[in-house]
Every structure is written in C-alpha cells, then in structure tokens.
C-alpha cells in the first residue's frame, strides 16, 4: 500500500481525503497517514478521523521513500508555493481520481493531479502537474490544462481549449471551443468565455470580459 499524506488541512483537503477513502472502498491500496499544515494551531487536530501531523518538519524524521503526498489546497498560488516546499524536501507526489470520474485511455496526467467525482474527460487531453478538477466537470477533446490550474465544480470546457499555468476557473464557467486562457488568469463563476483571455487578468460575465489586470509575476509575491 502507498502511504499517503495530504498537504493542507482545509475544506478541499478533506475532500481529497474523501477520494482516497472512496478508492479504498473499491480496492484497498492506500494507507492514509493524515494531513500536513503550516499553521501550528492546526497541529494535533483530527479531521474526519485522521490527524494533522504537523508541518513540513514532520517528514524530516520519516522514511520519505515510503510516503506519497498530494496537495489539498484549492488556491493555485498557495498550492504552487506548498508544492515547491515539498519538492525541496524530496517528497514524491501521487495522483488521485475519484472512482466515479470517467477518463478515456487517451488522457495524460502529470503528477499531483486531483480529479473529483462525476467529471468526464474525452480524447487526447493533457493535464499538467498539480491540477485540480472538481465535481461534475466536462473536459472536451484535445484540451491542454497546464500546471497548477484549478477547475471548480460544474465547469464545462469544450474541445481544443488551452488553459495555461495557474489559472483559476470558477464554478459553472463555460469555455467554448478553441479558446486560450492566459497564465494565472481568473475566470469568475458562471462566466461564458467566447474569446481568448489574457494572462494575469480577472474576467467575469456573459460573455466574459476582463475587469482587472494584474502585474506580471503577481503570483510570486
């Protein structure tokens, strides 16, 4: 069995735990050790029956070769920073897919990918590393979703869409075919994207329009 530690101890981390538990119900393959969190106030707590083990220092006295981690933090900017800390400690990431998600054999995944229940992926789709796809999404043919993107519940992505690094696509958004979403862009809940979205912007509405532009590199701050 793989020994699993979830990075983060918030709401989405508990949902990631749910996916591991659902997988174990189908076929026992994971020993869930608990959660890691950067906030000392959270250490020692129990979440859904599993402990918050401590901070990243917890790994320093463990055999990391026997442990796989996955980041359960929904915010792409925060997730990227936590993943960088984990990589610096030599930790290895796994993927987790809910048993009710549908992926054809023609879907390629990076590392640290989380796919929740009810989502459907068709043909020739590539997901980068540390991508989160939430409940009941559809991802069409020939899509590319790059590293650290978050796809919120109920998002529908048509074919030949390219979602670049670090994008945050809000609940219920719809992206028509052939669109490119630029790096670190945010698309608001319920938006309908009919034109390419520039990087480092926030877009909302039907059709989606840019309401805010950020300085390049804002996510590094």
UniProtKB/TrEMBL annotation:
Pfam (any one): PglD_N
Molecular-function annotations in GO: transferase activity
InterPro entries: AcTrfase_PglD-like, Hexapep_transf_CS, PglD_N, Trans_hexapeptide_repeat, Trimer_LpxA-like_sf
Domain of life: Bacteria
PROSITE patterns attached to this UniProt entry: HEXAPEP_TRANSFERASES
Transferase keyword on record: yes
Site label Increases basicity of active site His, positions: 142
UniProt keyword NADP, yes or no: no
Keywords: Repeat, Transferase
PglD N-terminal domain boundaries: 3-85
CDD domains linked to this entry: LbH_AT_putative
Active site: 141 (proton acceptor)
Binding residues annotated for substrate, in chain numbering: 74
UniProt cross-references to PANTHER family, sorted A to Z: ACETYLTRANSFERASE, UDP-N-ACETYLBACILLOSAMINE N-ACETYLTRANSFERASE
UniProt name for this protein: Acetyltransferase
Protein source organism: Candidatus Segetimicrobium genomatis
